[in-house]
C-alpha cells in the first residue's frame, strides 16, 4: 500500500486563569478512504503547579457514521472507509499545541 494523500491540522488551547480550556478540530476527508490518523502533542507549557496538557482523538466517522471514542481516546487509529477524524486538546494552568496527521492509503 502506498500513501496517496496526507491531511493535517494543528490547534492550541490556553488556560491562564485556572479554569481549564479545551479545543476541538475535525479533519473531513474528501470521501471514504483507508486512513491512519495520528495525534501528537507538539508543545506543552505550564504556568503554575499543578498544570497539565493533553491531546487525543475523540471521534471518527466511517462511511459517514460517527464513532465516539471519548471513553477510551487513542493516540492513533487505522480505519477503513474513514470520512473524518476529530481531535481535542486540553490545558489546565498552561498552554498546549496539538497536531493531527491523517494518511490515506490506496
Give an overview of the whole structure.
The chain is mainly beta. The protein has a single domain (3-105), classed as Jelly Rolls, CATH 2.60.120. 0% of the residues lie in helices and 78% in strands. The chain has strands at residues 3-15, 21-46, 52-62, 65-68, 76-92, 94-105. Strands 1-6-2-5-3-4 form a six-stranded antiparallel beta sheet, with no helix packed on it. The protein starts with a strand and ends with a strand. The model has no long low-confidence stretch (mean pLDDT 93).
Beta-strand content? over 45%
Provide mean pLDDT, rounded. 93
Give the N-to-C terminal Cα separation: 6 Å
Q: Largest sheet at a glance? A: 6 strands, antiparallel
Fold topology:
Elements: E1 3-15, E2 21-46, E3 52-62, E4 65-68, E5 76-92, E6 94-105
Antiparallel strand pairs: 1-6, 2-5, 2-6, 3-4, 3-5
Amino acid at each position: 500500500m502506498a500513501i496517496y494523500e496526507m491531511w493535517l491540522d494543528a490547534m492550541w488551547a490556553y488556560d491562564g486563569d485556572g479554569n481549564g480550556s479545551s479545543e476541538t478540530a475535525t479533519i473531513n476527508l474528501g470521501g471514504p478512504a483507508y486512513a491512519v490518523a495520528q495525534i501528537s502533542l507538539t508543545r506543552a507549557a505550564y504556568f503554575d503547579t499543578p498544570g497539565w496538557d493533553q491531546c487525543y482523538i475523540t471521534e471518527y466517522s466511517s462511511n459517514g457514521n460517527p464513532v465516539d471514542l471519548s471513553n477510551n481516546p487513542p493516540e492513533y487509529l487505522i480505519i477503513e472507509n474513514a470520512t473524518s477524524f476529530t481531535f481535542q486538546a486540553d490545558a489546565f494552568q498552561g498552554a498546549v499545541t496539538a497536531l493531527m496527521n491523517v494518511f490515506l492509503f490506496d
